[in-house]
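Fold this: DUF2480 family protein
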Amino acid sequence: MNEEKEIVNRVANSPLVTFDLEALYPEGPRFRIDISQWLEEGLVLREKAFREALGAHDWTVYLDGYVSLFCTTDAIVPAWAYLLITSYLNPFAKLVVAGPPELLESVAYRDLLEAMDLEPYRDKPVIIKGCSKKEVPQSAYLWALEKLQGVARHVHFGEACSSVPIVRRK
């Protein structure tokens, strides 16, 4: 009477489509530039010296990189200083932001998600994968939901074996 029942992998047979933000991770080196290095005593921006320092800097090291610009001192840095630095970075870097590295990651993901074709997810049950080895910013999950919510039949979060339902489109 010991009938063996076939084990069926319901997860593998599920129509769920996984949306993996880790797979979208924007590849390229990350750079942090503290602009206080180009300020007198780390605090005072003298335009002529600032421009000379930027002109002498090797910007090619940022090739295909993601750059966050910030100032670690209490200096009052005019907006044009960030613009000037960015003008040197633009020919080399993939992305430049003024702010901490966390902001850099968020903006990089936002750009990717904005450009993404979501047709493969249309009218399908989608699960936004929750675990990753790479650091995916929380905002990326929010933006992924924002994009998927309009096209997917329903969106879950987590793993296929244990997910949390988030939204169901009517």
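DSSP finds four helices and seven strands in the chain. The radius of gyration is 23 Å.
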